[in-house]
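COMPLEX REQUEST
Ligand: manganese (II) ion
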Amino acid sequence: MATRISDQPMPRHNCPPPELAVIVPTYQESDMVDEVVRRVEAVLQGIDWELIFVDDDSPDGTSDRVRAIARQDSRVRLVQRIGRRGLSSACIEGMMSTAAPFMAVMDGDLQHDETLLPKMLEVIQAENLDIVVGSRYVSGGGMGDWNARRQSMSRFATRIGQYLIHADLQDPMSGFFLVRASVVQGCVRRLSGVGFKILLDIFAEAEHPLRFRELPFTFRAREAGSSKLDNAVLWEYLLMLTQKLIGPVIPVRFIAFSAIGGFGVFVHMAVLWPMLTLLGTDAFLISQATATLVAMTSNFFLNNILTYRDMRLRGRQLIRGWLSFVAACSVGALANVGIADYLFQGGHSGWFLSALAGILVGAVWNYAVTAVYTWKRPRAT
Ligand code: GDD
Ligand code: MN
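STATUS: Structure written out below.
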């Protein structure tokens, strides 16, 4: 009897899979790559490892640098993402690109203490844990050279984080941890991928409460390059928390989009009022039209920076984006007024509910259309 294709044995060869994958997200770290590889190699003697850089197509040629090393050493690998940005999503994609049973996430600027890696692996196995976290806040750990403002921002974020995950984790903001692959694979579809708080997200979304331990380390000063995490990460963090609290029903981008829309009303009035004062009420139409355009434009830029931070349009794309945004929102405004008028005139609802329904339909329309036409993802085909 003929054997079926699926019954045939898999080919075997003598090439053991790595036990530990070290995932290193990078953006503009070309000067660091060599040293990261050297140090990982030195510290992981006796362990089968692979080192995966996930680079968001850094203009400084980080990807090329990694590729050059990978040509000499097959344990070093590269995921080069095109047209994408974001620390969390980079870590997730790195973790999904390996078959290793354990994976560590570590910054690519040497601020995390790589000498902790063997200990982390030893502890997770010996104590049968789900995850081991490199912590700045347990005794023996430290903050390095952070200024007071950044320290207090981090403390604030830490506190909300602890509340969110109901775990007594001292450093939920850490970007340095070693986790069992099965834990991530079990919850990866629920991870938000927005922002930079990947550890917090894993704790929040894991299928069961995680068995963890924190090991102290001192956050090193940066020797070269600069931090990529600016104030906008605090906004992203708040977005992620909002998403966790309201659940998957309402997309978090819609919340951000609506918040910016609400702010647009203030922008509108801030333009309309002085124009009317200067030009008189005869100029209402032109003033209203100007205010509308200014508000739409400011909404466009704010959404581009905040709501669609990971797909931000730049250069010539900005003009195309702005045009499509204004076109979409003009239709949205017409729909808003039309529906509110229909409901109100037809006696279906009072002025307040009519207006609210109009605003809601307009907002959903604007959001849905601009999500597809203004900030559409680059497609391979
Ligand atoms: N692929 C990719 N895409 N990597 C990125 C991006 C991005 O958009 N942004 C930053 N990175 C990389 C950096 O190149 C670096 O290797 C690492 O992520 C951390 O970024 P830094 O810009 O050096 O972060 P930091 O030093 O300010 O922040 C640290 O503190 C946080 C705790 O509050 C990091 O340790 C974070 O991991 C940590 O969460
Ligand atoms: Mn750093």
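REMARKS: The CA atoms of residues 195 and 237 lie 6 Å apart. Residues 15-246 form a domain with the Spore Coat Polysaccharide Biosynthesis Protein SpsA; Chain A fold (CATH 3.90.550.10).
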